[in-house]
Amino acid sequence: MDVYIMGIESSCDETSISIVKNGHEEIATTVLTQMDTHALYGGVVPEIASRMHTENITMVLEDVLSKTDLTMNDISAIAVTYAPGLLGSLLVGVEFAKVLSLVYDKPLIATHHIAGHIYANNLVKNLEFPLLALVVSGGHTELVLMEDDYKFKVLATTLDDAIGECFDKVARVLGLPYPGGPNVEKYAKEGKPTYDLPKPMDNDELNFSFSGLKSAVINLCHNEEQRGNEIRKYDLARSFQDVAFDQIIRKTKLAIEKYDIKRVIVAGGVSASAVLREEMTILCDKMNVDLSIPPMRYCTDNATMIACAAYPQYLRKDFTDLSLRAKSQEYFFQDSE
Ligand code: KG4
Ligand code: ZN
């Protein structure tokens, strides 16, 4: 029998609900982004985010149902992002999911946001194991070996900052508007790599580090300002992006060689970067490795990826009850190592 999972995502500044068939086929989706509102403040304002989720979530449900002939009766389970993210934002989705589960008598599934980013790859082609997952987001920079669904072995992690966090910080220092990552990419496209920035972790270790690179950009801006020199923003964005992605590519290559990897997937918000997508494609082509990256619109936050990630949970009856709590922080890979 076909399984229709309704996914709900509200961990940051997108209110999204989707219906996904059998873990990989999107039936309907609605994503309402608050980006324009938060851009006025230069970043996500948590209080405004949760208020907007509360105001909008019922309309998002109505909208997604209007896009399909399915009704709530056809839904097999309700899945919701319970962690990590802004607590007030997560709470809106979690409590809404509980109400739907109670009113319509559907099983409730607690799904981790990072599982969503990983399982968005099922929209392209069902995951085949073993595989190497490169997880690059606002809070994660990891190389993870997956032997099976929800079976993870972390091969490498960042020793300090996550890559997305670093993009956001550099955007701020350069005075670029929110959201940081995509704007650094836009500027980098117009620039040349003329600034000499230190290459972090230029060794055989698999782990990542981004704080040194971040500090180098901050110090450079500071020093140039003090000297009264103008900063060439486009060139600095490009120089930074080149060094940041060079590290990602070098470490991924090392892991492919060391663990004799045949399949790679990319997950997380930074995989929306056209430059990273292209560099990963070149690397995997060269190394004869099968590469999967979710379609661009599923790299940023959406509920479809949550419904995809909930499917293996549904199959093993990994259900939760109304005592489910939203958590602002919860390390995803810790239980399965
Ligand atoms: O995966 P995500 O939603 O974060 C977490 O779940 O933690 O991704 C958001 C991150 C932000 O740090 C954002 O700046 C970054 O992904 N990002 C990018 C790009 N698009 C989004 N970074 C670099 N280039 C991009 N095009
Ligand atoms: Zn995300």
Provide key terms for this protein.
single chain; 337 residues; alpha/beta; Nucleotidyltransferase, domain 5; 2 domains; 5-stranded mixed sheet; binds 5'-O-[(R)-(carboxyoxy)(hydroxy)phosphoryl]adenosine; binds zinc ion
Structure description:
- The protein has 337 residues and is an alpha/beta fold.
- It folds into two domains: 4-120 and 298-315, ATPase, nucleotide binding domain (Nucleotidyltransferase, domain 5), CATH 3.30.420; 128-293, Nucleotidyltransferase, domain 5 (2-Layer Sandwich).
- 42% of the residues lie in helices and 19% in strands.
- A five-stranded mixed β-sheet has the order 3-2-1-4-5, with helices on both faces.
- α2 runs parallel beside α3 (87-104), α4 crosses α10 and α5 (163-173) packs antiparallel against α8 (233-258).
- The model has no long low-confidence stretch (mean pLDDT 96).
- The structure holds 5'-O-[(R)-(carboxyoxy)(hydroxy)phosphoryl]adenosine (KG4) and zinc ion.
- Zinc ion (ZN) binds at residues 113, 117, 137, 269, 301.
